[in-house]
Design goal:
The chain contains nine helices and seven strands; from the N terminus they run H-H-H-H-H-H-E-H-E-E-H-E-E-H-E-E. The protein is an alpha+beta fold and about 475 residues long. A five-stranded mixed sheet has the order 2-4-5-7-6, covered by helices on one side. Helix 1 runs antiparallel to helix 2, helix 2 packs antiparallel against helix 3 and helix 8 packs antiparallel against helix 9. The two termini are about 55 Å apart.
Length: about 475
Amino acid sequence: MKKCLRFGMIAKITLVLFFYIASVAIMGLLAYNDLVDAEKKTETLELAYNIHNNILESRRYEKNYFLYGGEDSLDDVLDMTQKTSEIIDAILYRDGVSSAITQKLKELGADMGGYTEKIHALPALKKTNAEQYSQTMAEVRQSGKKISEMSENIVNDEKKFIHATIVQLREQLLVWISVAIVIGVLLSLMVANFVFRPLAAVKRITAEIAQGRFRRIEVINSRDEIQEVMEACNIMVQELERRQDQLIQAEKLSSLGTLTAGVAHQLNNPLNNISTSCQIVIDEFDRGDTSLFKRMLNNIEQETLRARDVVKSLLEFARSQSSFSPPREASLADITRKALLLVKSQVPSDVSLIVRIPDDLMLIMDPQRMQEVFINMIINAAQAIEQRGEIAITATVDAATQEVVIEIRDTGHGIKEENLTKVFDPFFTTKAEGHGTGLGLPVVYGIIQQHQGKISVQSTPGQGTSFFIRLPYPGGKK
């Protein structure tokens, strides 16, 4: 059989982080390249500004020459045009310069060459040919104006180009941020699906196990450690169910040991009565008193039924858990009476048993398990009463919550405050060694939880204890 590929949690988380880091790195690299391009374009714009400023400066020297005739001004013009040509060449050799700007710079360089030639010719023409000098002056002014306009256009084009680049970078930044957010959300959902959802299921089932509800979870086929944990949880739930059944059966056997002596005493009375009735019939048989015989036989029948009920209740209680029938509708009062029949001999004669449960109060439950609840609770209550006292069992319907509230109250010595939170812990007992297993109340707690109910306790030392059991009431549903 081919073994399926298992992709561990560490590998999954590493892969998710790798994809996220790789995505951020790619976006960062693209953004970095865009910023480098923007930086180059900004430097080109600065050089274009220098070209325009130099041309304007050369025009100023040109005007000074025409106004004052100083040949030093022409030298300044030639110096500025030389610097401008050098800047143009520097821009043309730069990377990332657009073809449109390159073409305009070449045209500007060519026009500046003609402008420079005319500047060079002015001193000679001024001395030899006045008419040609005037014409050349006009051409110089016209060329200067042209190169000035061309440089200004180049600056404006670069400004527009930079502005467009900034707008593009801003739009790209918004796009990258949106992509990063989407990727982050998707990766978060993947992590939540791979990790947190299965962990939440495991957490939920462990919380239910802590409350005594053993329910298996649906295993997510993630092929990693989470799947193994969920499978282990289901194995644990199965084992806990088995152990709980063993615990219940162990407590039942312990309770049977407690009940055996009492049941023997309860059976002894009807057997004595049966024996006495039989003896009377034998002694009076020769006299033929049919009315006496009939009365004795009726007495024997009643005592036999009485003994049968005791034995039947004991057998039902002792029955293995595996043979329990599914939950069904049953009378709460009838279950309570059967429990009282078994534990009656365990309750001292000076302890009153009071039961106030309506005969028509029906609940969906496992009758045998609920009978065990009442047996444990009544025995515990009787053992808590040292002298004369009272055990009261009442049941009322809470219409607001659609629940039946069962109260089992005794007038015993009560429970200390520090022990109230421990009474449902397995093997916790305040009884003397050899007089308690500490399993009765934990078993009761588990049975109530399995019936989707709740159990709580209130007690004041010296004033008795009350246990409250709340069970769903199907009769409250409309």
